[in-house]
């Protein structure tokens, strides 16, 4: 897992370096994903089964050594991306900004950006359902945010800012982990496992494409749809150790799946 996380960090750093070298700090940064990017959204979700990073030793190396909702001892990947972009840290969690009101939410969204990432989230709504904010809901929250921004400063100003903003997406690891755990709990034949793996990745591709290329193109001006923006950083970490019980063909499915997403 360490090597895979390192690959993810290096992948993001390369993209960050490319974008940062192009000029001044972007106007805002919008974050979508799971626990490696979450900065506190899960702390505001109801229910005892929700994974929250609100206790020691989360945040022990963060300024003031307090839990911040990050699944980390200090800053997380979103923070380091933001720092490289010229921000002090990651933009704040959407649910921490009283999203039912417009004041703090709109000011923050315009001036800094918003994080919609949620620990445990997946591309599929069924992944850890009820205990997280799935990608589809995160995109809906972004749509609600944009609508309030438009009401406050007008569509032209909003679209101009979004066209120069950074969008960071890192999600998919939980879908794979949940699927792998379910496979281990069932005594299936090798043929059935291969079929299930193939079905999973077809569903992931379909749902990811729908959330990003279809829904987001409706939320941002067509010329600046998130997935086509040169200022998008998108990554789905591959937790191959979670699928070691699968056949070599299953690993082939995984390796074929990643480039498709990276080049959307």
- Spatial order of the strands in the main sheet? 2-1-3-4
Shape: globular
Question: How far is the N terminus from the C terminus?
Answer: 25 Å
Largest sheet: 4 strands, parallel
Unreliable spans: 1-11, 218-247, 249-264
Q: How many DSSP E strands?
A: 4
Alpha-carbon Rg, integer? 18 Å
How much beta, percentage-wise? 5-15%
Percentage of residues in helical conformation: 40-55%
Total of DSSP H or I helical runs spanning 4+ residues: 8
Mean residue pLDDT: 76
Count of folded domains: 1
Q: What's the order of the H and E elements?
A: HEHHEHHEHHEH
Q: Which structural class do you get from the secondary structure elements?
A: alpha/beta
What does this 3D model show about the protein?
Keywords: Hydrolase, Lipid degradation, Lipid metabolism, Signal. Belongs to the 'GDSL' lipolytic enzyme family. It comes from Setaria italica. This is SGNH hydrolase-type esterase domain-containing protein. By secondary structure, this protein is α/β, with parallel strands linked by helices. It has one domain. 46% of the residues lie in helices and 6% in strands. It has 8 helices and 4 strands. It has a 4-stranded parallel β-sheet, with helices on both faces. It is globular.
């Amino acid at each position: 897992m360490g090597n895979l996380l390192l690959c993810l960090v290096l992948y993001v750093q390369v993209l960050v370096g490319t974008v940062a070298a192009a000029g001044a700090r972007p106007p805002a940064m919008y974050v979508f994903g799971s626990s490696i990017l979450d900065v506190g959204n899960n702390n505001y979700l109801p229910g005892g089964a929700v994974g929250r990073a609100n206790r020691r030793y989360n945040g022990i190396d963060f300024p003031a050594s307090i839990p911040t909702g990050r699944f980390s001892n200090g800053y997380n990947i979103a923070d380091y991306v933001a720092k490289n972009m010229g921000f002090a840290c990651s933009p704040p969690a959407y649910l921490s900004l009283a999203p039912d009101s417009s004041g703090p939410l709109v000011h923050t969204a315009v001036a800094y950006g918003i994080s919609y990432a949620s620990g445990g989230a997946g591309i599929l709504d069924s992944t850890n359902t009820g205990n997280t904010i799935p990608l589809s809901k995160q995109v809906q929250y972004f749509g609600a945010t944009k609508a309030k921004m438009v009401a406050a400063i007008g569509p032209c100003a909003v679209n101009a800012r979004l066209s120069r903003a950074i969008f960071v997406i890192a999600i998919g690891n939980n879908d794979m982990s949940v699927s792998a755990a379910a496979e281990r709990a069932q005594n299936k034949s090798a043929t059935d496992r291969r079929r299930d793996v193939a079905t999973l990745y077809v569903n992931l591709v379909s749902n990811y494409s729908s959330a990003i290329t279809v829904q987001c193109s409706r939320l941002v001006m067509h010329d600046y749809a998130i997935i086509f923006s040169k200022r998008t950083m998108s990554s789905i970490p591959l937790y191959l150790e979670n699928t070691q019980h699968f056949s070599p063909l299953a690993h082939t499915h995984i390796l074929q799946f990643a480039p498709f997403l990276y080049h959307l």
